[in-house]
Amino acid sequence: xxxxxxxxxxxxxxxxxxxxxxxxxxxxxxxxxxxxxxxxxxxxxxxxxxxxxxxxxxxxxxxxxxxxxxxxxxxxxxxxxxxxxxxxxxxxxxxxxxxxxxxxxxxxxxxxxxxxxxxxxxxxxxxxxxxxxxxxxxxxxxxxxxxxxxxxxxxxxxxxxxxxxxxxxxxxxxxxxxxxxxxxxxxxxxxxxxxxxxxxxxxxxxxxxxxxxxxxxxxxxxxxxxxxxxxxxxxxxxxxxxxxxxxxxxxxxxxxxxxxxxxxxxxxxxxxxxxxxxxxxxxxxxxxxxxxxxxxxxxxxxxxxxxxxxxxxxxxxxxxxxxxxxxxxxxxxxxxxxxxxxxxxxxxxxxxxxxxxxxxxxxxxxxxxxxxxxxxxxxxxxxxxxxxxxxxxxxxxxxxxxxxxxxxxxxxxxxxxxxxxxxxxxxxxxxxxxxxxxxxxxxxxxxxxxxxxxxxxxxxxxxx
Length: 464
Hints:
With 464 residues, the chain is an alpha+beta fold. The protein has twelve helices and 18 strands. The protein folds into two domains: 84 residues, Roll (Ubiquitin-like (UB roll)); 354 residues, Creatine Kinase, Chain A, domain 2 (2-Layer Sandwich).
């Protein structure tokens, strides 16, 4: 704080759905006692936390999360926080605590000492977004200067629009967002996040990807929250808007969050064994087996929005097939094989998306993988692959044998209702939390959407 002449300190927490909240304190009021003891807040006003009758809670900063916020008018230090009860015990619905408990459970099992996670977040950068849902009508509309639908728009048009499904790696001027992504990268690096690359993604209308370096489970989830904050605010500074929605544009690719995962014991990688399929160890195969076996329930945390299932549609390039493969990007799990060493051996779960709360999603993935290791679930014996063929060219009878992910949020919530025991191991998740999650999603998202007329219904049914 002294080195950067900090005037304000921002304390941040994450609610159960995965949104950040903050409170700001003058730096002159932040001493060692405040940093150790934390500050009080009203938990009843945070989604998924507490009722009004037991609302007093405490947030305590995680010092290693500190970075100087580049978007505030005065020098401001940002700190992620953990949530505590007034008596000093951890709050069991705090998503960050659930992630930490998953890491503690991993060590207790003796299977490994560390789980590394490396998510790839995709997003859209729009120039305009409008939407409304009321009792008299509903609509949404997005726009992007580079979108294919704008080839004939504007008083002056220089062309170089991104074709549908033609946005992967074009150079400027087709890639019109090189500079804004570069500024995003610089701010991420200034915040202490190690960035590996950035590029335009497949879809038209400003789809982008910026990849950062893997880290431990909870630290990676912290980085995801910082990443989203920085990406949105750099875009806002440019007069643009970012969304991490999985499917904001009809008829083109959606945005996912491919999650790379590996286990280590100290410095020893545990997912590598030369000579086996894709150089995967038996432990890695069992970890894959756990994720694929529990995938329908797991997706209640990893693809937890109604919009998630607009992306996960069979027959397109979405990772809906419950198989693993070393080359097939429509498989739920891909095993990277290019430029892989023993220490970079990993699995990539491609089905998740960025509407997930990263603390909950990563914890649930680890618990599913550990259950696979504990029970020695062999994905080959259960018909989960490996499948290194082009699924779209398979004969119909062979294609019919491939299981797909559920088709809606309601289906994955039902799957979680009947398959959650693996999440309770080590007290990582609780029955109360899982029930709260299911009830919240059904009431506030599934039912809310089902109750409302859709604009397409007017087109389909108005004249019947």
